TrEMBL record:
Record's protein name: ATPase
Subcellular location: Cell membrane
Source domain of life: Bacteria
Originating species: Cellulomonas terrae
Residues of the Cation-transporting P-type ATPase N-terminal domain: 16-90
Segments traversing the membrane: 76-107, 258-278, 284-304, 700-722, 734-759, 780-797, 809-829, 841-863, 875-892
One GO MF term: P-type calcium transporter activity
Keywords: ATP-binding, Magnesium, Membrane, Metal-binding, Nucleotide-binding, Translocase, Transmembrane, Transmembrane helix
């Protein structure tokens, strides 16, 4: 648990300011609460503690980022190929490869420059002005000039400028959602708390930097400034957390290293053979360049970036914006979601859903601040007079709610105004008609609010006091209860029913408020105005309301989809565990709830042991959230963490997929990898679905690319080792033409291929089973070998032409077979294990008709013949090339039939393996 650090010394233990009474706290900091600090003491303390600012993390320079991108193994290999091509006079080859390097570096550098802005966003939060007592006078100064020991005056509308112990409060409330996740304002007082680990959200006598005062006034003793505040602690956490590479980045890095070994090994073998045969250096370099281009997937980074960009556009259309293209793929591997409650799973709009009065229970329909919804009751029950309750709803509150749902004031009071509207009461008109005669403002010290008005009551004009507050507090001040129209009975008569209703509402996780009235005489008015608090007694209990931040309509369905997809969903919130548990049950989450203090008391081993049976976490701190993410990642889970407040930022940055709400803080959005512009949990689940589809497309592309690459490399090695076609299977420009003019269209066909409906019926892929797993590599080798053999046939048994033209004709046929084989393999390899010939297939055929035309033109157009070293082919030669090109798609389709049969057999023998872990548990 994070505690506000003691300013006396960075080496001493943190001071528990909440456990010190105001006099002890001011004495601890040697401060006069009336006069404040002297100018000399302020200067001394600023020298000691520094400015009240957060330390920003300097972003990397552009040149350092560019240099880092150039050091990428793939780019190093491409640079080497471009340099050799230029050295041997292959200028066009050098230009194309160099252009690829520039594209890779620009895309990578742009993403990197956006990576580390989280702490900068913290540091650039709007700085408030503060009213401070200095040398006995009240002065206004910038917040960065504050030092520990300053006395700050606060009022509604202020941003708290530092952390501090409250010395005086008057009906003061602060909105601390940014730090604690608590959805409603927190009442503040000066009462000393127990000297123990009090959760941050329960430190009612403390105020924290960058929270806002929503009601009342207060005086605060500054106890921490700058990086020692709670917000500073979060900044420190952010600085210590480095964003991890996505699973795709890690897999592509491994694949690049393997391909590098293959490429340079192939080049080395061919060069050694050439030296043994006495080939000239220029011929060797020409041959080595061709082999390197064939062995290095020169288009891999560009094509993967293009597919990820396509996925990013799909996500943006679905109201999910990714910060980095690689995060598109990471979404598909998500195996655990830690979700914030307020505003993500819920609407963040307090709503009355239950009502109890005159011994009857009512259900209130409608969500949020819309003033529509029915009040439902048991059939046959007498319709009661709800006027006494309606008075309390609109008169003992100050919030306003417009017809379009805009709220001014306390959100809980807004829920009461909306309930009044559902009862047919206009709150604002009622307040104008019945102005307050006297008032006891709400204060967390006594937890109620009372107002007195001249009201019509049973045909007369009466002086009536209306009270709302915590049920326990209100009941203590009641002596009677309203049992029916005009029927008032002793409280003890109805107390069992009232307490049973309170328990029932609490079990549902509802926040309850009680309402009461007192009927006074005209003679009481003078004394009431003089001392309104003395009249808040001998009350008549009127009723209870149950308030909740309702679930988003799509949240429950989204959770069901996630669980069906094998994704564990946990709710992590600043609300109390009891409230959170009720929401968890409504959502259908797994069992188990725990509070922040209980969580902090567990060791990592104990927490990991209990984690499968813990799905609701209440009253947690930023450190708790970060710890949970880190422990889950150690288990091998790919974790998504959602949130909208500053207190979520560190955990969001640590997560594999940090998800911020579009309405959340700038800090959180900068730390996140994904921003949901509609703040909706169901959008995240849909984003996971899109991420899975993108990963499928990437694996299809890698399968296609590697089959072609292996086919080319083996073809070049065979030609060199066995001296086929003078050891040169194809020219470098032929290889580049295949890579960038022919193979780009199969990639487009893969990108446009629709995703099957069962993509969210499977468990998440195991991130440890990468793209280059054993089964996939064996399949690449099989497909590559078939493509190599088909392309080698013309080189070995080429057309019967004069010897001078034989190599050119044979090489042209090999080039055509490789081109057509690549196009047809793109058609069938775009899906696995489903058949690539199954509907819908028309879009793919249209796209793949273009590279077929390009291959034909490459053998017929004069300038392409000269550039590529090709020649026209006869009709029989074209038929032979087409027949050879069909070998790979035939083999691939047969292989997929066998895959589907093996999968069906495994399902019959081991049906439990087809059920996701989450579904099996449930």
């Amino acid at each position: 648990m994070t505690e506000t650090a003691a300013p006396q010394s960075t080496e001493t233990a943190p001071t528990r300011w909440w456990a010190l009474d105001p006099e002890a706290a001011t004495a601890e900091l040697s401060t006069d609460p009336t006069a404040g600090l002297s100018a000399a003491e302020v200067a001394s303390r600023r020298e000691r503690y520094g400015s009240n600012t957060l330390t920003a993390q300097a972003p990397p320079s552009v040149w350092s980022v560019v240099f880092q991108q150039l050091r990428d193994p793939m780019n190093i290999m491409l640079i080497a190929v471009a340099a050799v091509s230029a050295a041997i006079g292959q200028g066009s080859t050098a230009l194309i490869v160099g252009f690829l390097v520039v594209i890779n570096v620009v895309i990578g550098a742009r993403q990197e420059m956006l990576a580390r802005k989280s702490v900068d966003a913290l540091a650039t939060m709007q700085e408030p002005q503060s009213r401070v007592r200095r040398d006995g006078a009240l002065v206004q100064i910038p917040a960065h000039d504050l030092v520990p020991g300053d006395i700050v005056e606060l009022e509604a509308g202020d941003i708290v400028p530092a952390d501090g112990r409250l010395l005086r409060t008057a009906t003061m409330e602060t909105q601390e959602a940014a730090l604690t996740g608590e959805s409603t304002p927190i009442g503040k007082d000066v009462l000393t708390l127990a000297d123990e680990d009090v959760p941050l959200g329960d430190r009612a006598n403390m105020a924290f930097q960058n929270t806002s005062v929503t009601r009342g006034t207060g005086t605060m003793l500054v106890t921490a400034t700058g990086m020692t505040t709670q917000i500073g602690t979060i900044a420190t956490l952010l600085s210590s957390v480095e964003k991890t590479k996505s699973p795709l980045q890690r897999e592509l890095d491994k694949l690049t290293k393997v391909l590098g070994v293959i490429a340079w090994s192939a080049v080395a073998v061919i060069v050694v053979i050439g030296i043994v045969r006495g080939q000239s250096p220029s011929d060797l370099l020409f041959l080595a360049t061709a082999v390197a281009i064939s062995a290095i997937p020169t288009g891999l980074p560009t094509f993967v970036q293009a597919m990820l960009a396509y996925g990013a556009r799909q996500l943006a259309d679905a109201k999910a914006v990714v910060a980095n293209l690689n995060d598109v793929e990471t979404l598909g591997a998500t195996s655990s979601i830690n979700s914030d409650k307020t505003g993500t799973l819920t609407l963040n709009e307090m709503t009355v859903v239950a009502l109890y009065t005159v011994g009857q229970h009512f259900t209130v329909e409608g969500n949020g601040y819309a003033k529509t919804g029915k009040i439902l009751q048991t059939a046959g029950a007498e319709v009661p007079d709800l006027t006494p309750l309606a008075y309390g709803l609109c008169l003992a509150s100050d919030a306003t709610v417009s017809d379009d749902g805009a709220v001014i004031g306390d959100p809980t009071e807004a829920a009461l105004v909306v309930l009044a509207a559902k009862l047919g009461i206009d709150a604002e008109e009622s307040r104008r008609t019945y102005p307050r005669v006297a008032e006891v403002p709400f204060d967390s010290a006594y937890k109620f609010m009372a107002t007195a008005h001249w009201l019509p009551w049973r045909g007369d004009r009466s002086l009536v006091e209306v009270v709302k507050g915590g049920p326990d507090v209100v009941l203590q001040r009641c002596t009677h209860a309203l049992a029916g129209p005009g029927e008032v009975v002793p409280l003890e008569t109805m107390r069992p029913d009232i307490e049973a209703e309170m328990d029932r509402l609490a079990e549902q996780g509802l926040r309850t408020l009680a309402f009461a009235t007192r009927f006074l005489t005209p003679a009481d008015e003078t004394a009431l105005v003089a001392d309104p608090m003395s009249y808040v007694e001998q009350l008549v209990f009127v009723g209870l309301v149950g308030i909740v931040d309702p679930l988003r309509p799509t949240a429950k369905v989204a959770v069901e989809i996630a669980l069906k997809a094998g994704i564990e969903v946990r709710m992590i919130t600043g609300d109390h565990a009891v409230t959170a548990s009720a929401i968890g049950r409504q959502l259908g989450l797994g069992p188990g709830a725990i509070s922040g203090p209980e969580l902090a008391a567990l060791t990592d081993e104990e927490l990991l042991e209990r984690l499968p049976n813990l799905h609701v976490f209440g009253r947690v701190t930023p450190e708790d959230k970060l710890r949970l993410v880190q422990l889950m990642q150690k288990q091998g889970l790919v974790v998504a963490m959602t949130g909208d407040a500053v207190n979520d930022a560190a955990a969001i940055k640590q997560a594999d997929i940090g998800v911020a709400m579009g309405s959340g803080s700038e800090v959180t959005k900068q730390a996140a990898r994904l921003v949901l512009t509609d703040d909706n949990f169901s959008t995240l689940v849909h984003a996971v679905e899109l991420g899975r589809s993108i990963y499928q497309k990437i694996t299809a592309y890698i399968r296609f690319q590697m089959s072609q690459l292996i086919g080319l490399v083996v073809l070049f090695l065979a030609a060199s080792v066995f001296d086929i076609a003078d050891g040169v299977a194809m020219t470098p420009m032929m290889v580049l033409f295949l890579n960038f003019f022919v193979c780009v269209f199969p990639v487009i066909a893969i990108m446009l291929d629709p995703v099957g409906p069962g993509i969210m019926d499977r468990a998440p892929r195991d991130p440890r089973l990468g793209i280059s797993n054993g089964a996939a590599v064996r399949r690449w080798i099989l497909y590559g070998a078939v493509l190599c053999i088909a392309s080698a046939v013309p080189l070995v048994a080429g057309p019967d032409t004069p010897a001078a033209d034989r190599a050119t004709a044979s090489m042209t046929m090999a080039f055509v077979v490789m081109g057509l084989g690549s196009v047809l393999s793109g058609l069938v390899l775009r899906r696995e294990p489903e058949s690539g010939l199954a509907a819908p297939v028309l879009t793919a055929v249209k796209v793949l008709s273009v590279p077929v035309i390009l291959v034909v033109l490459a053998t017929e157009l004069g300038f392409l013949q000269r550039w590529l070293t090709t020649q026209p082919l006869s009709g029989p030669q074209w038929l032979a090339c087409l027949g050879l090109a069909l070998l790979l798609p035939i083999v691939a389709e047969v292989d997929k039939v066998l895959q589907r049969r093996r999968a069906a057999t495994a399902l019959v023998l081991h049906p439990q393996e087809a059920v996701s872990p989450a579904r099996a548990r449930r």
